[in-house]
Amino acid sequence: MADEMWVNMGPQHPFNHGLWNLRVRLDGETITAAEPIVGYLHRGWEKMVENRTYPQIIPLADRLCYGSSFSWSHLYCLAAERLFDIEIPERAKYIRTACLEIQRIISHLTWLMALGTDLGSYTILIWCLREREVFIDRMVDICGARMTYNYPRIGGVRNDLPPNFARDVIRSLDLFETRLQEIEALTDSNAAFRMRTVNIGNISAEKAINLGLTGPNLRGSGVELDLRRHEPYEVYDDMDFEICTATDGDAWSRYRVRVDEMRESDKIIRQCLDKMPEGPVRVKVPRCPPKGTVGCRVEDPRGESLMYIVSDGTDKPYRLKVRSPNYINLSAAPAMLLGYKISDVPSIMGVLDMCIGETDR
Amino acid sequence: MDIDLSFQAMTMTAKQFSEMSKNFIRETMVTTGAKKAIDKLTAPIWSWGQRNALYPLHFGIACCALEMAASSGARFDAERLGIIYRSSPRQSDVLLVNGWISAKIRPSLKALYEQMPAPKWVIAMGECSISGGPWYDAYNVIQGVDTFLPVDIYIPGCPPRPDALLDGFLKLNRKITAENRGSFLED
Questions:
Q1: Which chain A residues have a beta carbon less than 8 Å from that of B107?
Q2: Of B57, B63, B102, the CB nearest to A63
Q3: Taking the CB of the first residue and of the last residue of chain B, which one, N or C, has fewer CB atoms within 10 A?
Q4: Which domains, and CATH codes, for chain A?
Q5: Domain edges within chain B
Q6: What CATH class is the domain B63-179?
Q7: Is A116 on the interface with B (CB under 8 A)?
C-alpha cells in the first residue's frame, strides 16, 4: 500500500470552471476521500438584497449564476409575483417560457464546452462556442445583453419581442438541429470520450435521492422528476415535451440527459412561438407587497432552484433565501468520486455542471 | 584588471567567480554607456516579442470568465492577436482579473501575481474588479483589484463584450509599444 497524500485541485486549476477547491486523498492513484471547498466567490448576496428594493434585485439575481442568468432572474420575478399576488399577461408567460428554453440551450452548450476541454477535445469547445453565439444573438435581439439580461420584470417582461424574432429563432433552431448532430457525432463515436465517461462516477437512484441531487444529474440515475412537468409554472402545462432520463447513473448518462434536453428545449421553443398570443407584456405592480412569506421553485438547467421571500410589508424584502441546486450537487461529489482514479475527476465533476456563483452566493 | 582582483580569483569558488565577473561586466557596461546603447538598439525587438505573444493566465473567476472563453472561440478568435491562455502562472505574462474578488481569494490572487515571471501586466476586466461594481456594499468583496495589485488596463462593462476584451488587449499592446523598454543585462 502506497503512502496516502492529499492533492489540492484549485482554486487555480485548469479543470475547475469557477473558483473552488477540491481536496482529494489519494492511495496511489485511487481516491479514498474527497472534500470540496467552496466560498471563494461568497459576497453575501442574501444579506445584500435586504438593502435593495424589489425591482433593484432583478439585475443582482442575474448575476447569481452567470451560466443561466435568465432562469435566476425569472425565478426571482416569479416568486415576487406570488408575493405581490398578481397575474401576468398571457403573452409575457409565453415569452418567458421561450427565453427560459433558449437559456437552457445556452447553459447546456456552455457545460458541454467546458466538459470538452476537461476531457481533452478542443474541437468540442470550439463547436459549442459557435452554436452558443447563435442563441446569444437571439437574446441580444431581445434585450441587448449577451449574458446578464435583466429582461424579466415583476409583472411581465421589460419589452415586447423585436420584429421577425420568431423567424430568426426558427432559423437558429433549424441550424442548431443539424449542428447538434455533428457535435454528437464528435462525442458519441469518440472512443476516448466514451472511455472517460462510461461507467465512471456511478450513483444509484436511491443514493442520488438521498444525497439530494436534482435536475439532469438525478434524471441520469433514472428518476423521472422534472418540475416543469410535476409542478408546472408559466405555460409548461400546455407544452408537449418528454422528460429525458437515462438509467445507468454514470457520467455518460448524465451527459446523454443534457444533450437530449437540448432537443426537448428546441421542441418547447417552437411550440411557444406557435401558440404565442397577442397582447400586453407587462402589468403595473404596487410598490410594497403585503406581509407574508412565499416559496417558489423552478427547474433550473442545473437542477431544482428555490427562492423563499419573507416580506414585512415594506418595499424591501425582510429575508430572501436561495436554494442553489449546485451547492447540493457539489456536496454529493465525495460519494461519486470515491474509489475512482484521479484522472476521472474532470469527467465526474465536469458533468455536474459547476457554477460557483450561485453555490457561494 | 588589477593584481588584487586576480589574486582573489584564485581562492574563489566557481559561483563566487561568476558572480564577480557578472557584476564587473555590468558595471563596465553601465559606466561606459554601452548598456544604454545596446538597450536602445534592442528595445524594439524585446517589445515586439512581448506585445505580440501576450499569454494570459487561465483563471476564470466569475461572469467575465465566460466572455473570456467566448473571446477565444470561433467568432472573436483571440488567438489571431497572440492571446493564448496558459494554465500555469509561470508561463503567463498577463493576469486577467475577471470577476469580484472576495476576501478568501485575495491572498491566492496575490500569490498568483507574484508567481508570474518579470515582465507582467494586470488587466482588470469588468466592473467588479475595477471598483466592486454591483457589490459595492457587500461585506466580503474587495472594492477593486487596484487596491492590492498594479493594474495596467481597465475594461469596463458588466460583463464587457468579447470585442471590448480584445480592445483591452490591443490597448495593452500599444502600452508596451510606448514603454519600449530594453532589458539587456536585466533579470
A1: none
A2: B63
A3: C
A4: 55-324 (1.10.645.10)
A5: 10-51, 63-179
A6: alpha beta
A7: no
Q: In Å, what is the CA distance from B147 to each residue of B102, B105, B130, B139, B141? A: 13, 14, 10, 16, 12
Residues contacting residue B147 through CB under 8 Å, at least 6 positions apart: none
What distance lies between CA B170 and its chain's CA centroid?
A: 15
Give the integer Cα–Cα distance in Å for A222 and A321. 30
Q: What is the CA radius of gyration of chain A?
A: 20
Per-residue pLDDT reduced to its tens digit, B85-123: 888 889 898 999 988 899 998 998 999 999 998 788 999
| Cβ neighbours of A48 in B, within 8 Å | 135, 137-138
Question: Chain B: residue nearest A358 by CA?
Answer: B62
- The DSSP symbol for A236 reads G
- Measured in angstroms, the CA of B64 and the nearest CA of chain A are apart by 9
CA distance A249 to A197: 11
Alpha helices by DSSP H, B52-90: 63-71
Judging contacts by C-beta atoms under 8 Å, the chain A residues touching residue B79 are none
Q: What pLDDT score was predicted for residue A106?
A: 92
CA–CA min distance B168, chain A (Å) = 18
Q: Does A148 touch chain B (CB under 8 A)?
A: yes
Q: How far is A22 from chain B (nearest CA, A)?
A: 15
pLDDT value of position B187: 44
Average confidence (pLDDT) over B35-43:
82
Which residues on neighbouring strands pair with residue A5, listed in sequence order?
A26
DSSP 8-state class, residue A50: G
Within A160-316, strands assigned E span 292-300, 303-311
pLDDT of residue A173: 92
User: Which among A42, A58, A131 is the top mutation candidate for probing chain B, defined by the most B β-carbons within 10 Å of its own β-carbon?
Assistant: A42
A300 bridge partner residues: A303
**Rounded to a whole number, what is the largest CA-CA distance in chain B?**
70
CA distance readout (Å), B49 to A304, B52, B53, B93, B173: 50, 6, 6, 12, 11
Cell of B183: 532589458
Q: For residue B47, what are the contacts with CB-CB under 8 A and spacing of at least 6?
A: B176, B177, B179, B180, B181
8 Å CB contact of B63 and A147 = yes
Model pLDDT for residues B109-168, shown as the tens digit of each residue? 999 999 998 788 999 998 889 998 888 888 889 888 989 999 999 999 888 999 999 999
- ipTM of predicted assembly, 2 dp: 0.83
Number of Cβ within 10 Å of residue A179's Cβ equals 16
C-alpha cell at B182: 530594453
Whether residue A41 lies within 8 A of chain B, CB to CB, comes out as yes
Q: Over 70: is that where the pLDDT of B184 sits?
A: no
Amino acid (one-letter) located at A194: R
**Residue B7 parent element (H or E):** helix B3-11
Q: Which of A44, A129, A146 sits opposite B138 (nearest CB)?
A: A44
Which residues of chain A carry a pLDDT beneath 70? 1-2
Q: What is the pLDDT of residue A174?
A: 92
